[in-house]
Amino acid sequence: MPAIRVRFVQSRENEMSTTLIIVAVVTTIFFLWKFLAPQPKLKIPHVQFRSDNSMARYRAETKTLMGEGYEKYTRNGQAFSIRNAYNPKRPIAILPMKYLEEVKNAPQTGLSYPLVSERVFTNLGDQCFNKI
Questions:
Q1: How many domains does the chain have?
Q2: Is residue 71 assigned to a domain?
Q3: pTM of the model
Q4: Which helix (H) or strand (E) holds 18?
Q5: Which uninterrupted H or E stretch holds 112?
Q6: Which of 25, 86, 102, 130 pairs as cysteine with 123 (C-beta 3.0–4.6 A)?
Q7: 110: alpha, beta or left, given left = phi > 0 and alpha = psi -120 to 50?
Q8: What residues form the membrane-spanning segments (predicted)?
Q9: Of 23, 44, 37, whose CA–CA distance to 96 is shortest?
Q10: Looking at residue 1, what DSSP letter applies?
Q11: Is residue 62 one of the residues assigned to a domain?
């Protein structure tokens, strides 16, 4: 009987080792993909602060940038982008009203308001709860 028990323990240890290796590889791939993913290149003007470009300032004063971008670009029918305070690798594009119908009629596979809302509000919630 002891021989059977030893094989079973060795088998369980091998399974656990294999599982840990798989988890480590998947986790590494996920983090490499998440943090090393290329930043999208938008071919529109980018509005940013002239001096302090910190994340804290973007979180506190985005309204100022939106106003500046509106006056400079959107008012003239042009799109612009600003830094995303919650995911700097994904800038936020601000479009003029003339694109509203096109965006509304875009397929969900290309532009998904529910998906974007979920991501934005989840990040906002995480940020708010982390400060408490």
A1: 2
A2: yes
A3: 0.56
A4: helix 2-36
A5: none
A6: 86
A7: alpha
A8: 16-36
A9: 44
A10: -
A11: yes
